[in-house]
Amino acid sequence: MEENKEDVVTPFSIESGETGVDYEKLVAKFGCEFVKPEHVQQIEELTGQKPHHLLRRGIYFAHRDLDVILSTFRNRKPFYLYTGRGPSSAALHVGHMVPFIINKWLQDAFNVPMIIQITDDEKYLYRPELSYEDVQKYAKENIRDIIACGFDINKTFIFTDSSYIHRLYPNFIKMQKHITLNQIQGCFGFNGTDNIGKWAYPPLQAVPAFSNSFPEIFGNRNIPCLIPEAIDQDPYFRMTRDVAPRIGYLKPAVLHAKFFPALQGLNTKMSASDANSAIYMDDTPEVIAKKITSYAFSGGGRSLKEHREKGANLAVDVPFQYLTFFMEDDARLEEIRVKYGSGEMLTKEIKADTIRIVTEFVLEHQRRRSLVTDEMIEAFMTPRPLLVNNL
Amino acid sequence: MEENKEDVVTPFSIESGETGVDYEKLVAKFGCEFVKPEHVQQIEELTGQKPHHLLRRGIYFAHRDLDVILSTFRNRKPFYLYTGRGPSSAALHVGHMVPFIINKWLQDAFNVPMIIQITDDEKYLYRPELSYEDVQKYAKENIRDIIACGFDINKTFIFTDSSYIHRLYPNFIKMQKHITLNQIQGCFGFNGTDNIGKWAYPPLQAVPAFSNSFPEIFGNRNIPCLIPEAIDQDPYFRMTRDVAPRIGYLKPAVLHAKFFPALQGLNTKMSASDANSAIYMDDTPEVIAKKITSYAFSGGGRSLKEHREKGANLAVDVPFQYLTFFMEDDARLEEIRVKYGSGEMLTKEIKADTIRIVTEFVLEHQRRRSLVTDEMIEAFMTPRPLLVNNL
């Protein structure tokens, strides 16, 4: 019966069967479109660069109006990127890094400005256990991690909602005026015992999708926006796209990623209350090895005999999923797919690859993070014109 | 049957019988307390000044924790005043002036800081017909009127929500986190087709009641607040007083006025869509005379004979009400009360007094308003320490 139950995907929870979310059904339900090979090919032609493996491997798999953005760029008109982070904890896990990886790649490849919203207010309002001071502290640590991803200081503005609210506020109340309580309920499913700030927050996530929210950066120009994020954020931008034309603004385009799985499997949730459900960007190599060895859900056979005969079920194998997200070497990944899928390669072998790739990724991040100073944070958070060729 | 219907008083509408709101019932229903002669006497003792006629005549008639404020002052500890204005139109009417008159008097008498909130966001969110630009324009014109009331530049800070939101925001979301949708509905009676910004706004009216919302003015000090306003604003401050202790803040005290009546009578509403329902601060002497002569509801007898026999019904007589609010001369007001109440004085005579008093008030305001420069507006709106002896 499991597979007949409908997946539930909201910005607040994801429920699915053990093979994870059915993305065909989700795309149909949300009403967005699949990224096609032609899109990836166009990105290569337009940027002159081999598309990032998160694009080539279909991890960024769905979109709205990506064609509009690509033809804007083809016509030598500017666009900008916008993504965000809710500072609910001091340390990010590897899954949190995915949108920043693709955004940095897109920023470099297209040479466009990048806007990063840190929703300190959201996390304070949505998490009963967090104080205002907690989220301020987490916001700063999260920004340090984001800068460590390598964003270009000349092309990137990072802000917390509370630090930039004076600029966001006019568009925030414009959005709020054009969305009823019933519409918020339809999109987000809150109830009467939820606090009123939680109800009122969603329109704020729309605001950075409008270029005139950033007068110091874009002046009064009306510049199209592309939002690469995980698909659970789609309700925010369905709402945004619904209201935008009614207030005279451009609809933002979106580019959606599949979900990054928890160690325990594609139907489980990474949870801050269970440190073993995810690998954190401040984990040590020993902890990483231990977590992957002990907790990463395997799609391998239950016995050596069964494994050699049937091979691994790659669709539910967490180490294989992690490699798909993080291993850059296409040839090695293909070799693993064939050999592990056929049973020639064993679970402990793919786990060794996974430990190596994830450890390298985390240690390199830690090294770059240690170089991020408070002055750099301040510089990224200073509103200023962003120097971009085609703007 | 009329008198058995319960009055409906909310920040958005007032419905009552023809003798106006039953304030005994309203005070009981809201759970606030009556201002007693002892309070007025204490104000005289503490300030060394004869209390303003709006206090002496019982127009400011109800309160919460006024005793706390008076004993704070008696103990030589500071408090501050807070009131507000929703900029829904360019011109104020005479009724809008009442809170500013009492606040200016209290500021001078107690020598305390005054905070004035201009709720541009509220009016934009609550009035479908108003654009964001409309409310910005009205806000500036309303501030000009408020400054013309004579507030002391050394003791007064005026802000619009959108211009000062960066400081208000932390306490705004703290308030929002501690109020559920159901509680907003219980206090304000909105429904699902109302926009989400309207639902979320009320906690912002609480924020200026907390001194730490104004770091440039009060530093980190925890200073008690007194809010003199019309009693229809009570729901905002019941809500504020309910939440304040839960977030570690002092409950603000309130001082409530009775309603200023429309020209057409105590059970009618002053309405921007009917220019003849109120006297505006930019009306000419001719218009003022015309409005009072033609439209001010009279409690006089229907015939001269009836009037001479029974006298005027002062409780419903609009000119008498206006004089109670605006005539400073106690002896003349008492003479009118006796002579008009007994039928010795005629409606046209009291209307002549009313025209004279209101015209003097409006012309003097227009004179002072013409002296308010843009530089003065900017000065009042600049956050800065307020120079007050006992702070």
TrEMBL record, chains A, B:
CDD domains: TrpRS_core
SUPFAM superfamilies xrefs: Nucleotidylyl transferase
Cell location: Cytoplasm
Enzyme Commission designation: 6.1.1.2
One example GO MF annotation: ATP binding
Top-level taxon: Eukaryota
GO biological process: tryptophanyl-tRNA aminoacylation
Annotated keywords: Aminoacyl-tRNA synthetase, ATP-binding, Cytoplasm, Ligase, Nucleotide-binding, Protein biosynthesis
Catalysis: reaction(s): tRNA(Trp) + L-tryptophan + ATP = L-tryptophyl-tRNA(Trp) + AMP + diphosphate + H(+)
Cross-referenced PANTHER family: TRYPTOPHAN--TRNA LIGASE, CYTOPLASMIC (PTHR10055:SF1), TRYPTOPHANYL-TRNA SYNTHETASE (PTHR10055)
Similarity comment: family membership: Belongs to the class-I aminoacyl-tRNA synthetase family.
Name recorded for this polypeptide: Tryptophan--tRNA ligase, cytoplasmic
